[in-house]
Automatic annotation (TrEMBL):
It holds the Pfam family CDP-OH_P_transf. GO terms for molecular function: CDP-diacylglycerol-serine O-phosphatidyltransferase activity. This is CDP-diacylglycerol--serine O-phosphatidyltransferase. Keywords: Lipid biosynthesis, Lipid metabolism, Membrane, Phospholipid biosynthesis, Phospholipid metabolism, Transferase, Transmembrane, Transmembrane helix. It catalyses: a CDP-1,2-diacyl-sn-glycerol + L-serine = a 1,2-diacyl-sn-glycero-3-phospho-L-serine + CMP + H(+). Belongs to the CDP-alcohol phosphatidyltransferase class-I family. Its EC number is 2.7.8.8. It is an enzyme of class 2 (transferase). The chain crosses the membrane at residues 21-38, 44-62, 83-104, 110-127, 139-161, 173-197. Its main location: membrane. It comes from Roseateles asaccharophilus. The keyword Nucleotidyltransferase does not apply. It is a multi-pass membrane protein. It is found in: Endomembrane system.
Amino acid sequence: MNKPKPFSMIREFHLADWFTLGNACAGMGALFAVMSFLQSGDAVHLTYACALIPVALAFDVLDGRIARWRQKSSALGRELDSLADIISFGVAPAAIAYGCGMQGLYDRVVLVFFVACGVSRLARFNVTAEKLSAGSDKVAYFEGTPIPTSMVLVAVLWAAAAQGAIGDALWGGVWWIAGFRLHPLVLMFALSGSLMVSRIRIPKL
């Protein structure tokens, strides 16, 4: 019986997988930037957090293109991609929203719903990818909006942060319902999450 080599899993990574890890690292960087904002109160950290999400998207696009260019893909790569996506386009946008001021009870419920929808969307894609690809290397369409569409939400939050519309000044104000806060702006996360788990078909370009 051959003894497993040290770091044998890493040795099995394809070039595209390293770009996928770049996606995850950018998402973690965004999370750390939000934490820095919550500690220091310096809004520049929110700007950094928002800026790292497009970086994650660039890595996400490149890993797919590199995999097709090199004609090397694997089930490991697909799972790795989904895990990176949930960090960068699910958890990180929700954390940015929290940092921007969506910290009421109802806000948190909506943000958890959004992340749960993102996880569910990616899991559904992974189990149906082979069927959707119809025997080719590329799926023909998405069921539900792809999780990287959360970039739109991040763009809105970046614009709000750039104008100082965070915390008590968050766009849309705050509603008090049964003694708990809801910032209406958080409802865009509810809409995004609902679209991700819908059955609408979106052609993949």
